[in-house]
Amino acid sequence: MSSFLKKVELKYQLKKMGINVVKGNYVRKKDLSRILIKASLLKVYHGSQHIYDKFDISKVRENGQQWGKGMYFSEKLKGADSADSYGEYIYSTEIDLQTLCDVSSFPDAVKVAKAIGLTDFEENYDKEKKESYDWYGALTSYYLKEKGYIDVLKLKDIISREYQKMGYTGLYISFRNWVVLFNPEKHEIKRDLDAEKKIAE
Question: Of 201, 155, 141, 188, nearest to 46 (Cα)?
């Protein structure tokens, strides 16, 4: 699949947003902000075996929380490791990418490391790791190695709390197409009947 969007496809996507490309190649300046806002929004899905009126983070099960406690969403609706893998009831929301920390971000991991007492973390890791490197996981492993045993779930809570202090509302696991929201009750999450129909097709 190409990484580039053809001009005709771009025009189609803009038209769906109610924005018409005029004079062949131009977009009105007044529409630019709408384009940028829409481009930064990521629609994600959560599959569940239960119907909820609201989400309560205190009731999230602890097992399988690879990137800490939170509500896990997938960019993928169908297929392996996607929302429908976890339940027939689908919930969705749109997240501003600017509010998420990509776990492959080394600079953010260094800030967290310093905050939790891993002062030599930056010196001992290669900044040039591939983009899909999981620095959240690296922080967890390095802490256990340097500081000794601590309950892993408790450690992940500490790491996630530092990301929240930096202003992030969640984590973006780009190489898995997942999003983890620290406090889902603060987001507008609704059952997505259209998504459920697509799965059933």
Answer: 188
